[in-house]
Structures
1.
Amino acid sequence: MSDLDTWIRAAAAELGIDPAEVPTGAVLGLAKDVAHNVVRPGAPVSAYLVGLAVGRGADPSEAAGKLRELALSWAGEQGETA
């Protein structure tokens, strides 16, 4: 088990969440895309936004996917390069 897996299990247990419900790949992909295409501090904030959306009933992977798509298109929308 990796350090990340160990952390996720411990953090999830602390918050009363089943670690199997954590879409780790989707969250990490989102963080990478936001950090590289938008701005680094946007990565944890984007993950928090996904958490808020999920708390309001959104599907975790779908919410992360929407923000990943936005991040990947960001430079083009802003007329800049990442």
2.
Amino acid sequence: MTLGDANGTPTVLVVEDEQHLADLYTDYLADRYRVETAYSGEEGIAMLSPDVDVVLLDRRMPVVSGNEVLAEIEEQGYPCRVAMVTAVNPDFDIIEMRVDDYLVKPVTREDLREVVERLHKIAAYNEQLQELTSQKLKRNVLQVEKTQAELESSERYRRLQSEIADIEKNVDALAAELDVEKEDLRL
């Protein structure tokens, strides 16, 4: 996952067939995020790319539905996070959907900003956790294969240990932020 452009700004793809809503959602987010807007499911599919971090997806659209856009995201293996933003009340079918959040219209500016921020943090958390696991595996291999004296004399090993500590701090900080948000959502 790209986790934002070169400046760390997440790219959000709004896929909404009601043009006034698509434009409104884009206006809600454009001051904080790089926003691309698709006015149909077909356009949304055409605009998908690995650079998209978050997709805000209407579920009920003519010709190509949000469910079909979601299936394309899954089929192509795009690493984006997806929130359905729809007038369709959720039912048990959402259990099988690969969506990270589900908002029922009408939604506010704050609703959209909060969901994009939360999904971006989840993506960052997952990326950091994956990096942490990779670095710890390397450290573990070295600890099995090298003597303690070799480990202690290696600058590269010390850098690896330092990287692991930094990543752990980042993971812990993101986890704490996400837990706070979960608590806020329960209220």
3.
Amino acid sequence: MQISDRVQSLDCPQGSAVALGFFDGVHIGHQSVIKAAVDCARAEGLAAGVFTFRLPLSHQLKGGRLETEADKHRVMADLGVQVYLEPPFEEVCGQSPEEFVDQILVGVFRAKAVFCGDNFTFGKKAAGNVETLRTLCGQRGIRVVQVEMAQWQGKSVSSTRIRAALEAGDITAANTMLGRPYRIDFPVRRGQGLGHTLGFPTINQVFPEGFIQPRFGIYITRVQIGGTWYAGATGLGTRPTVNSSGQNPTCETFIPGFTGDLYGAQPVLEFYEYLAPSRKFDTLEELTACVQDAAAKAAAYFAPGGAGSAVEAR
């Protein structure tokens, strides 16, 4: 996938079919728009493109970010996107609707067809909507396709609903709306080493500022290390048994069967099931028993015949 972070020509001399949107989380609704563009590109001999934009890490996205840019790129490539433009928001937010169409769709993508959801807006102060896009593109020979919003349980799928599900610990709902397991790929940091002392060494990942944190508690997860997937038991929270301050939440995962140093690495951690809320144990022995029990449940979950046995490696 060709990625450009500046408004400049992309390598698509044959023209392109372009999906438009911010695509926060690239959930199943976003995927419908992107797949429509990809299908059109394949049928008509065009390049499959996506236009989005990048917000600075300092920008406090309402509710928190759902994924890193690297993970967003991975999902886009898996969907078949070939040319991908993500300029900084400040580089395009001042454009008029006409400038957006002429400079981005015509100038960068050589667009033949564009695809968007029914709530798409563009241009300075969101001056343009789908009808504006249809009018401006029609004048330039570009076809506009409006894709219906995906529904789940009778309501439109949205990034806001996914955040609410994560905050409630409803991983099943979040994963269903995402169309894939919720995942993080944050670097592994050094912790206090308590897990190693107690017989269950963990990897410690910290959610950067600006990212949503799921509900604190214990989860069934799986971790990808060196191309291999391992079942994991993850504790997300402030570790109340050993941390009386109630601050500095961490995401610590025990990976039975794995030995090795992952400090500084960025293993992929996927969330599958919420087991229990965080709690303070009276003894370290009780804490150890809880972790071992979660690990056993994770192993059973991914074992042949288990609930997660049909999960395919990605």
4.
Amino acid sequence: MFSDKLRLLRQETGLTQTQTAERVGISWRTYQDLEAGKYPSYVTLLKIADTFQVSVDWLMGRTEDREVHQL
């Protein structure tokens, strides 16, 4: 589920895996592992959510709402 959403975000923005990894601030190999099904560390999860401006809950499949809600 996470890997599918990550791939979807990358494809929607028209980026390669390498370009996405650079924007997120992780290695290409780490990014490749994430698209292959590995779950991210907490820090990496936050970086991905911030980069694509989506909620962590959406990335992790807890909601269908992509928006980040501020308290």
